[in-house]
Amino acid sequence: GAVVSQHPSWVICKSGTSVKIECRSLDFQATTMFWYRQFPKQSLMLMATSNEGSKATYEQGVEKDKFLINHASLTLSTLTVTSAHPEDSSFYICSHLDLKGGETQYFGPGTRLLVL
Amino acid sequence: TQLLEQSPQFLSIQEGENLTVYCNSSSVFSSLQWYRQEPGEGPVLLVTVVTGGEVKKLKRLTFQFGDARKDSSLHITAAQPGDTGLYLCAGIIQGAQKLVFGQGTRLTINP
Known about the structure:
The structure holds 2 protein chains of 2 kinds. By secondary structure, chain A is mostly beta strands. Helix content of chain A is 3%, strand content 53%. In chain A, a hairpin with a 5-residue loop joins strand 5 (45-51) and strand 6. The model of chain A has no long low-confidence stretch (mean pLDDT 89). In chain B, a hairpin with a 5-residue loop joins strand 7 (61-65) and strand 8. Chain B is built from no helices and 11 strands. In chain B, 34% of the residues are buried. Chain B is globular, with a radius of gyration of 13 Å. In chain B, strands 2, 4, 5, 9, 10 and 11 form a 6-stranded mixed β-sheet that branches. In chain B, strands 1-3-8-7-6 form a 5-stranded antiparallel β-sheet, with no helix packed on it. By secondary structure, chain B is an all-beta fold. The mean pLDDT of chain B is 93.
């Protein structure tokens, strides 16, 4: 399957700072990538759909000014959590869509964010 | 509203027993995936099913897609402690690109 990497794998920051998470598609050019958030003991919740060269599409209830998504190339999408607060602490996971083989999504290893 | 209902959400059984996890919806899916997720890691794809009535086997795991493509099941035979983990079903609703996840099943196999 296709390989997706995320960086950093974990980050601790102070409240009010901004954090950037990178998602790279290592062996596939992804025109569409997805960002999810997962709270402890819960399933994945889609935050936004990232389209290369255009604005991201955000799910209802997700603040687009707080979670900035940039998909500048076919292999890189970034999520920036601006002015992070403790309630933003979560596990953030990206994925990309492979339209071949049944619309499969391949997920990155995730980034654990802890805001103090 | 949960588009994809996964059950049970928690399951703890003894090694050697069989189990089935279900995912149900009122929506039709163009494809459905099953993932397994370990703590602190991203979900890892186990299987993708696309055809109504399709059955796929992966060693002791059997995946079935409902005839109407609205439901799916995961059956594990002779469960082992190594099967412990979070199992997630997810599907793409017909006509959409987004992946919809079930609530997940946290499976514990006791030695």
